[in-house]
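Forum > Structural Biology > Help requests

Title: Can anyone predict the 3D structure of Yellow-h3?

Hi all, first post here. I have the sequence for Yellow-h3 but no way to get a structure on my laptop. I'd be grateful if someone could post the structure tokens.
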Amino acid sequence: MKVIICFIAAWMISYASTQSPNGSTIGTLYRWKQIDYQYPSPAQRQEAIDAGEFIQANVIPLGIERWKGRVFISTPRWKSGVPATLSSVPVSSQSESPELAPYPNWDWHNAVNCTGFTSIFRMSVDHCGIMWVLDSGQVEAFETPRQLCPPTLFAIDLETDTVVAKYPIPSEFVLQNSLITNLIVDSRDARCRDLHVYIADAWRFGLIVFRDSDAAFWRFSHYSFYPEPLLSNYTLHGLNYQWSDGLFGMSLGKYHLGDRPLYYHSMSGSLEFTVATSVIRDPSRVDNAVSEFTLLGESRGGDGQVSAAAVDRNGVMFFNLISRDAIGCWDTRNPYTNDNLAIVAQNNRTMIFPNDLRMDHEVPQLAWVITNRLPFYQFNLIDPLDYNYRVIYFDPAEVVEKTVCKQYI
Ligand SMILES: *[C@@H]1O[C@H](CO)[C@@H](O)[C@H](O)[C@H]1NC(C)=O
Ligand SMILES: *[C@@H]1O[C@H](CO)[C@@H](O)[C@H](O)[C@H]1NC(C)=O
Ligand SMILES: *[C@@H]1O[C@H](CO)[C@@H](O)[C@H](O)[C@H]1NC(C)=O
Ligand SMILES: *[C@@H]1O[C@H](CO)[C@@H](O)[C@H](O)[C@H]1NC(C)=O
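Reply #1:
Sure, ran it for you. Structure tokens for Yellow-h3 below:
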């Protein structure tokens, strides 16, 4: 495992590391005060600024994925002046604040009439090197929202850097005011046949399932996808705000005896739930599965809101505790009780609002987190002189040492 850690560590460890409560190291790969893009020339960058096409303060990184030598970052078009919505940076840049390279190229971000990308939220890479990308189709959600295109799932081949498929989500599964915000890919066999994508609608409380074999979509509703009233009232570093986000975080447990669990939760909530993927992969169960969605265990408490979560190869779930500037862990073999949850990283300066969290496909596996101070961005309170956005990584096997999430065999 030391190979990857060392080559990252050698050049980055000097400028940032966060100590977890039990001593293991959480690395900061990159950090930015403001995001900048790789323009073909400085003149073109200046032209974009003069034309209002690039307003640096309006760019916020949201989704993260890693494949081989690159990290992919989405920058949704929530405010005007976001010139590109999906980018890559090398895993080994010499800069601590590298420019984002629009991915796969600028053309995809300048296209009109829904022939390119509109506003990408998040990505999920399968183990065959296809990046599944969720495009909300909507721009300027924090200003004057305009739905330019349908929410769309794209598939991008990361070996050839080509968009290989595009699946607009059929309008019957997109409700008025839907916020289709997160996705997770479930691919099981070595060649990624039998692939499904699970998609969360955080504002209309739905779980949309996509089946790759015939490009079919269907949609589940369930009361466990709703937000909890009191957990919708947030206070973060003195900022009070109300978000009523339902179904959001999703992660997949281990494949066992032909099935695997999907773990899920509302963002504005304190509870974790689970459903067998065999249930949600069966469209005939859409109106006939209410008792299959079950509560896992205890509440995480009044500041227990979680954005993204992911399960590593050892079966340990990691989750972003957005009101605690922290990342938690839970060994999925243990009951979901507070005694079985631990904090693996916490920092009230460098980890404000951990937003996305993904496990990569490397050996050894690394976890990737983006922290982005989202509520401060929403209320125009980002300080451009401070480091606001970070790409954080850690070795999931290492950070659980000496916590209850460590398997004792
Ligand atoms: C976009 O679509 C509209 C309506 O179909 C059409 O009038 C316009 O020419 C198209 N623009 C481009 C650049 O293709
Ligand atoms: C929401 O949070 C604020 C700040 O902590 C508090 O003053 C207010 O009473 C809360 N509202 C409810 C309905 O709990
Ligand atoms: C951050 O944590 C440190 C140490 O626990 C504490 O002294 C400091 O007051 C905290 N700062 C904020 C802004 O919460
Ligand atoms: C750190 O390790 C100790 C045991 O060495 C354990 O009691 C404690 O709960 C751990 N802390 C966290 C945050 O997991």
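Confidence is low (pLDDT under 50) at residues 1-16. The radius of gyration is 20 Å.
Shout if anything looks off.
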